[in-house]
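Predict structure. Chain length: 364.
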Amino acid sequence: MHTPRFCHNCGAELPSEQARFCIECGVPIRGAVAPAAPTAPEPTHAVGTPTIQLPNARVDQQVIGGTVKLPGSGAVPPGLWVIDPPPGPEDVVAIYPPLRPVRDGWSGLVGRGWHAAGSEARGSQTIFHFHSEVPWFPAPGCGAGLRLISKISASSRAWEGRERRGFRFGVQRDGPMQIVHSFWQDATGREVFGQPLPQIQIMAPPRVPRVSDIDEQPALLDAREANLWVGESQAKGAYRLWRDQLVQEHTPVGRGITLIPLREWRSGPRSWLGRLVATVQAERYRVRVLQPFTCKLAAWKGQLKQIRQEAQALGLDLDPALAAEWWLDRNGYDGVIFTAARNRYDADQVLIVFRRGQLAQIKD
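Prediction complete.
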């Protein structure tokens, strides 16, 4: 029986041949076979703090409390607790450590939410330790005005970057992260004693699948087929790649592919022969974008500031690129159109898409 490698719903790569649910969107995998019961691993945590697997984290997570509840069935993220009493022992809250996704795991930076906490020799390897204090808070005017502060510890066999400013947290290599201490704090920052703690789940920040995360290529169609394929796309006409190759780029809105309308040019006026040669050489694409976000390029900086504030209100400490990806995905945008973009792109308008599958190359 064929074992699926990618989620049929969101396109995310599945972590193993035994996957029954997508680690990104949680949808059951078609054709997945229920695995045999695995041998119980040796416990890596204290008695009474069960280790669980969260759908979007890919690493074991630590929970304070008894009954385990997954986020979709009850864990309340920061800013969404809307009743007056604070959560108690029967409730589950979700917290997000300051991580950013990298290939096969996550990484954190010292000075960006993490602190170095020493190292130790373990056999022939050196284990580096880090900690972070992560807040959970209710909606304004709710939860008796209390904030829950959790100290998370993480260990890794690898630093991140040449200057050792952080660490890389491997999916299979490191873990689990653990909550080593939690306490309630009032509006003045003073610790509140005697207030029962809720159950706490560590959740990985949102990880939006884009370009290189999805195994797909543009369709190859003739002009008539391409016109039918784009359907009601908001991106009219033919486009060319801004870069010379179809590769993932770091754009103002996160990872994506930048395209220029074919009538635009990267530099100043050209002779009729130069325009003809460029048109013949450029690969032409039709683009399917049904709900693009549109703004002037110069206005994006202010928009991004609002996006990061919105993320922080939900307990998400995201860098600008991740915040942009999270917000665009959350609001259902499948592309971005920047106008007045000539200063950066030598074109009045550019289009950024998030998947190769949104493109159809036109056969000559």
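Summary: The chain has a mean pLDDT of 78.
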